[in-house]
Amino acid sequence: MFIYLVLASLGLRVGQARHEDLFALVGMKPRAAAPGRGDLHVVDTSALIDGRVVDLVSTGFVTGTLLLHEGVLRELQAIADTSDPRRRARGRRGLDTLVELQKLPTIDCQLVEEAGVLDVDAALVRLARERGASLITVDHNLAKVAEALRVPVAQVNALASRFRIPYAAGDEVAVQLVKEGREAGQGVGYLEDGTMVVVERAADRIGSEVAARVRNVIQTTTGRMIFAALDGSTE
Question: Which domains does the chain have, with CATH numbers?
Answer without folding.
Answer: 37-162 (3.40.50.1010), 167-230 (2.40.50.140)
